[in-house]
């Protein structure tokens, strides 16, 4: 008898689109299905993994959440991803379904391609690639090329090379998808929602369903169980990076900054909000201690939208300080970030 393959859902989407929020929602609504998560982050905070591992969801143990730190999953398939997947598959009680959350800068296609590797191809299949899209970010034109620069290129030698690296990553992610989750619809007016839908649809060569959500709250059956077998359908998933065997995300960069203890949350949010305004900054995530509070204060921002919450108590002996990881375009203004945080 041919053993059944364990289905894997790849959750892709740009920095801060809501991938971890969706994965958490799926874990909370697993309906008795045993899920495991492989999560990869750009930057070295190990933040998404700790956020998921500390979820407190019944039946979800720390060993069900596997972190793949170190760079980007699409560049480390051989060294990190395939071995981690093999380890999950080799467990005495393998999961029923695996969710793979890529970093916000990862290109999903090389990851889907890895499912054809002999070491794993008889044991797993890509049930579906879900691209989470930040509706308000699209509405603001974050991923749009500069129309004048594009027109000039077309008028020149005709070969169009995007001048906006964000656009390339965004397109690669949605062009690989079996389903688009248009997220953060709570932050979109009716007119913007329709405009964003039309803009996404215009990028897509085939009829891919777009479902809308806020905070990743979607009926799990719409995401899990797509049965796409995406690894056998690679040619239908175009990419800007087909010829780059080992592309290295050299348009982007990340850095970590120390965050000292603060007197009140507002002090931290004001500093981080200023840091997020520095030239080239795309995403900030971190935590620190607040005087007289036993809990860690988590802070994060996507573009200029900053939010914070307390996530868990500091452990005994854990330093009462924190870190902020900043991801931005290559050469983003680190000095301005450092100055804003120190101010
Ligand atoms: N208003 C609003 N905020 C959201 C929604 N979904 C997620 N967020 C917030 O957006 C921020 C980023 O969400 P995450 O789930 O961490 O995004 P991510 O895609 O995992 O981020 P990276 O791993 O850094 O790429 C968090 O502050 C979330 O609380 C939504 O639908 N509406």
From TrEMBL:
Residue ranges of the CobW C-terminal domain?
252-341
Recorded catalytic activity of this chain's protein: GTP + H2O = GDP + phosphate + H(+)
Family, according to the entry, reads as follows: Belongs to the SIMIBI class G3E GTPase family. ZNG1 subfamily.
Keywords carried by this UniProt record: Chaperone, Hydrolase, Nucleotide-binding
Source organism (scientific name): Phreatobacter cathodiphilus
Q: Which domain of life is it from?
A: Bacteria
UniProt lists the gene as: cobW
Q: What does this protein do?
A: Zinc chaperone that directly transfers zinc cofactor to target proteins, thereby activating them. Zinc is transferred from the CXCC motif in the GTPase domain to the zinc binding site in target proteins in a process requiring GTP hydrolysis.
Please give the CDD domains that the UniProt record associates with this protein.
CobW-like
What this protein is called in its record is Cobalamin biosynthesis protein CobW
The keyword Hydrolase appears for this protein: yes
One protein family per Pfam:
cobW
> Which InterPro entries does its entry note?
CobW (IPR012824), CobW-likC_sf (IPR036627), CobW-like_C (IPR011629), CobW/HypB/UreG_nucleotide-bd (IPR003495), P-loop_NTPase (IPR027417), Zinc-reg_GTPase_activator (IPR051316)
Gene Ontology cellular component annotations, sorted alphabetically: cytoplasm
């Amino acid at each position: 008898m041919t053993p059944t393959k364990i289905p894997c859902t790849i959750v892709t989407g740009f920095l801060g689109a809501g991938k971890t929020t969706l994965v958490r929602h799926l874990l909370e609504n697993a309906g008795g299905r045993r899920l495991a998560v492989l999560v990869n982050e750009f930057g070295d905070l190990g933040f998404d993994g700790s956020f998921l591992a500390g979820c407190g969801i019944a039946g979800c143990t720390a060993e069900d959440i596997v972190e793949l730190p170190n760079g980007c999953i699409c560049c480390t398939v051989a060294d990190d991803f395939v071995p981690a997947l093999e380890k999950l598959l080799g467990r005495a009680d393998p999961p029923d379904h695996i969710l793979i959350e890529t970093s916000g800068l990862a290109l999903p296609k090389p990851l889907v391609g890895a499912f054809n590797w002999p070491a794993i191809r008889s044991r797993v299949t890509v049930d579906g690639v879900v691209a989470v899209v930040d509706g308000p970010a699209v509405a603001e034109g974050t991923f749009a090329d500069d129309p004048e620069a594009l027109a000039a290129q077309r008028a020149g030698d005709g070969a169009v090379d995007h001048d906006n690296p964000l656009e390339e990553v965004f397109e690669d992610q949605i062009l690989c998808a079996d389903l688009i989750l248009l997220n953060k619809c709570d932050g979109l007016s009716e007119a913007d929602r329709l405009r964003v839908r039309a803009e996404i649809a215009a990028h897509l060569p085939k009829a891919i369903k777009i479902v809308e959500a806020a905070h990743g709250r979607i009926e799990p059956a719409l995401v899990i169980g797509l049965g796409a077998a995406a690894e056998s359908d690679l040619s239908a998933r175009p990419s800007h990076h087909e010829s780059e065997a080992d592309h290295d995300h050299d348009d982007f960069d990340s850095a970590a900054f120390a965050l000292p203890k603060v007197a009140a949350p507002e002090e931290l949010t004001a500093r981080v909000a200023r840091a997020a305004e520095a030239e080239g900054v795309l995403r900030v995530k971190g935590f620190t201690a607040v005087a007289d509070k036993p809990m860690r204060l988590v802070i994060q921002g996507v573009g200029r939208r900053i939010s914070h919450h307390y996530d868990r108590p500091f452990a005994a002996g854990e330093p009462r300080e924190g870190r902020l990881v900043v991801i931005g375009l290559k050469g983003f203004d680190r000095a301005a970030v450092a100055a804003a945080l120190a101010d």
